[in-house]
Amino acid sequence: MGAAGAFWGAGSVPVALLSLASVAAVVALSGVARRVLGALLIVVGIAAAFSGHWLAIVGGVLVAGSGVLQVLLGARMPKIGVGGQKTRAHDPETDMWRALERGDDPTDDRTPGGASSNE
Question: Which of 9, 37, 83, 101 is 20 to 30 A from 53, alpha carbon to alpha carbon?
């Protein structure tokens, strides 16, 4: 994010937007795709650093450094996905919320996930 600010201040708005987009992409990607993004960030950072403006040089160093981290440590970093939404134990309250998300009535015995008690 600091690199994006540096590029913005240097007048390199497209590179600043690329820097911001890469933050979201790093979280969404994993494996080889994350390492390819890291290599792209290294190239962009080095190229941007040669623009001559001191803020662009700072931004380029930051982007290239984050690219190096992605290439080296990208496989170890967590990825956003459904894995974080798994429940460990059966929780009736969670089941009720999931039934609501599916459009089912959790208090109706006839729907899947509905209440098991008779009224």
Answer: 37
